[in-house]
Amino acid sequence: MLIIGLDPGLACTGWGIVAKSGSRLSHVANGQVKTDAAASLAERLVVLDRELTDVILTHHPDSGAVEEVFVNTNAQSTLKLGQARGVCLLAIARAGLPVAEYATSLVKKALVGTGRAEKSQVQAMLKILLPGVQLAGADAADALAVAITHANMLGSHR
């Protein structure tokens, strides 16, 4: 089973795909979709949708998960993040895949054991869980963490 995880952002959305076979996980691919800050919001959302659709069509995941939005102190930033998150949910759902959503604190707890883990702790755990993984960046790392969390949740529901 292939699982795609997405870490939404308007400037940069991370994606990560893991394969689950029994209780074993392995890295398939990861990357980041960056949008041009000079482009209009609509244009940036189109780029995000097109790039995520390409990733899904290339790798054919069976299931997907998206990190939930945390409320920012800046309302404009929160709205833009929510719109990018909507595109992420749409890309997975449009491909006919089941999609789950996980809070950042749950993802951190699933990987590191505490919901207040630092990004560096999450990345260190990824290197243990997915030996040899080359991370495309911090957002891709977060997306892989979301995919792993979903893979583990799928296992606990069966």
TrEMBL record:
It catalyses: Endonucleolytic cleavage at a junction such as a reciprocal single-stranded crossover between two homologous DNA duplexes (Holliday junction). Mg(2+) 2 binds at E67. It is found in: Cytoplasm. Its cofactor is Mg(2+). Mg(2+) 1 binds at D7, D139. Binds 2 Mg(2+) ion per subunit. Its EC number is 3.1.21.10. It comes from the Bacteria. Keywords: Cytoplasm, DNA damage, DNA recombination, DNA repair, DNA-binding, Endonuclease, Hydrolase, Magnesium, Metal-binding, Nuclease. The active site is at D7, E67, D139. Gene3D superfamilies: Ribonuclease H-like superfamily/Ribonuclease H. It holds the Pfam family RuvC. Signal peptide: none annotated. The keyword Cytoplasm applies. NCBIfam families: ruvC (TIGR00228). Homodimer which binds Holliday junction (HJ) DNA. The HJ becomes 2-fold symmetrical on binding to RuvC with unstacked arms; it has a different conformation from HJ DNA in complex with RuvA. In the full resolvosome a probable DNA-RuvA(4)-RuvB(12)-RuvC(2) complex forms which resolves the HJ. Belongs to the RuvC family. The RuvA-RuvB-RuvC complex processes Holliday junction (HJ) DNA during genetic recombination and DNA repair. Endonuclease that resolves HJ intermediates. Cleaves cruciform DNA by making single-stranded nicks across the HJ at symmetrical positions within the homologous arms, yielding a 5'-phosphate and a 3'-hydroxyl group; requires a central core of homology in the junction. The consensus cleavage sequence is 5'-(A/T)TT(C/G)-3'. Cleavage occurs on the 3'-side of the TT dinucleotide at the point of strand exchange. This is Crossover junction endodeoxyribonuclease RuvC. The lineage of its organism: Bacteria, Pseudomonadati, Pseudomonadota, Alphaproteobacteria, Sphingomonadales. The gene is ruvC.
